[in-house]
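Figure 6 in text form: structure in, sequence out.
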């Protein structure tokens, strides 16, 4: 109790010190070796502590080494303590240099921190914060901590093939930590967003067969969603995607509150137009309750499929609406039992005449256009309006109307089985000397669609032509002549009918 009797210690060194820490409940067991380099004089910088550690942390393999300030600097927990450390914990690597105030409770921090790993989701055992599944990443930025606020600012790096930069702040003063921030990207690869919506690796395979499944079927880990609330925005200027579909200017805002995840807005430029969406995933229920409202505006048909030769001459704008609700723990399961409506409309454009003649099976016109070159015909409208109940899409209106022909479709699309069962009946508007005139059936799976003709009807026409040809060779063409109704479909009426629902 008598301060005057204290012995002043000017320097303290450690020689082969060993420190052990065990917590069976947290699956943690660490052994560290600590020493002060000797024989370097009496200057304070020569009294730095060097350490190495290995063991398990939260069940993950730990290996670390680093360097700190002098031993005596630890006694005043109000002063910043210099520290540099490199560590690997599981498949996550950390490199940090700077100062920490009070190592026992970390009351403040000012460090340059670099992180790299296989997925941000692997940070959960380290931080107790749920991050989404991602591709491999590497980030470096400035970590600041004071009071209940943690801020990782001016970070930059990459995730997969995408560059990322921005700032994130975590506030720990409330019942749940709250994260806010902004992330920007100059070049964002859409493939790197796949794990966020349950797409992982190659296409999935059905348990009941070897057929490939296209809809994402990896389950969301909702048990971690209530570990944090969040409000984070993502902006990307240039977007890359397989197939070269033109995408740009992504803006998304993700909020998470009490395990309710919302994307509002989700806005992306596509083929000269925009897709806007509001998506909600309620993780408080098992299975997840989901809803999505998506709008397509002014999407140019010619730019949407630039790799297809017969759409290079196609002009027209796609507009549409999608409203769906469903329940499931993956995107595929949500769609498999979804209810709602899907409407797409294309109007006032032109389309490849060769494509339309092929659909109508006008043989002489196909031959002529193939030899002399394709032309365009007026596209009056295309309407696809589906009701969706329990994952089955049935068309209210399914029609494509041009100067050459009208094509009317019916059938069903099964989102659960991921199959088509659609029949399209072309009705020509002009006389064709050689036309097969048969319905076209589109079936099979989403990954392997199959297009078949009504072979029975074609065969019947061929038999009729042969019989007439025995009487008069010129009569062989009569059964193959498609006279057509000679009138246009009322596209205005079709559009109004679709909009009324």
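Output sequence:
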């Amino acid at each position: 109790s008598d301060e005057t009797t204290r012995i002043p210690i000017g320097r303290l060194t450690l020689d082969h010190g060993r420190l052990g820490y065990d917590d069976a409940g947290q699956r943690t067991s660490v052994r560290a070796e600590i020493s002060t380099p000797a024989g370097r004089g009496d200057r304070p910088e020569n009294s730095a502590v060097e350490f190495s550690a290995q063991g398990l942390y939260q069940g993950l393999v730990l290996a670390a080494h680093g360097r700190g300030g002098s031993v005596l600097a630890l006694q005043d927990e109000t002063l910043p303590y210099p520290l540099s450390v490199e560590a690997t914990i599981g498949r996550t690597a950390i490199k940090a240099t700077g100062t920490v105030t009070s190592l026992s409770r970390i009351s403040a921090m000012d460090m340059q921190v670099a992180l790299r790993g296989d997925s941000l989701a692997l940070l959960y055992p380290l931080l107790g914060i749920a991050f989404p599944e991602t591709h491999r990443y590497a980030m470096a930025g400035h970590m600041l901590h004071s009071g209940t606020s943690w801020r990782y600012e001016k970070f930059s790096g990459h995730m997969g093939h995408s560059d990322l930069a921005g700032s994130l702040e975590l506030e720990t003063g409330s019942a749940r930590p709250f994260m806010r921030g902004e992330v920007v990207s100059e070049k964002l690869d859409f493939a790197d967003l796949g794990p966020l919506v349950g797409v992982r690796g190659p296409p999935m395979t059905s348990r009941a067969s070897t057929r490939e499944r296209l809809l994402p079927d990896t389950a969301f880990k909702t048990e971690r969603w209530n570990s944090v609330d969040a409000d984070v925005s993502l902006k990307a200027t240039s977007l890359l995607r397989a197939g070269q579909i033109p995408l740009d200017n992504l803006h998304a805002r993700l909020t998470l509150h009490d395990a309710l995840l919302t994307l509002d807005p989700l806005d992306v430029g596509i083929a000269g137009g925009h897709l806007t969406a509001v998506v909600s995933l309620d993780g408080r229920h098992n299975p997840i309750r989901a809803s999505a409202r998506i709008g397509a505006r002014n999407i140019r048909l010619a730019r949407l499929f630039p790799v297809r030769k017969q759409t290079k001459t196609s002009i027209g704008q796609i507009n549409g609406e999608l409203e769906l609700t469903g329940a499931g723990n993956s995107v595929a399961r949500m769609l498999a039992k979804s209810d709602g409506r899907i409407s797409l409309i294309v109007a006032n454009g032109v389309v490849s005449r060769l494509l339309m003649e092929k659909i109508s099976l006008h043989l002489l016109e196909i031959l002529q256009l193939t030899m002399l070159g394709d032309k365009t015909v007026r596209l009056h409208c295309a309407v696809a309006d589906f009701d969706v109940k329990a994952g089955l899409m049935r068309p209210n209106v399914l029609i494509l109307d041009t100067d050459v022909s009208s094509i009317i479709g019916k059938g069903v699309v099964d989102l659960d089985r991921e199959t088509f069962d659609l029949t399209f009946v072309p009705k020509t508007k002009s006389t064709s000397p050689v036309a097969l005139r048969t319905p076209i059936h589109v079936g099979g799976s989403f990954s392997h669609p199959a297009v078949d003709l009504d072979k029975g009807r074609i065969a019947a026409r061929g038999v009729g032509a042969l019989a007439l040809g025995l009487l008069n060779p010129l009569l062989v063409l009569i059964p193959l002549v498609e006279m057509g109704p000679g009138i246009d479909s009322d596209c205005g009426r079709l559009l109004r009918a679709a909009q009324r629902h």
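Caption detail: Residues 39 and 46 are 9 Å apart (CA to CA).
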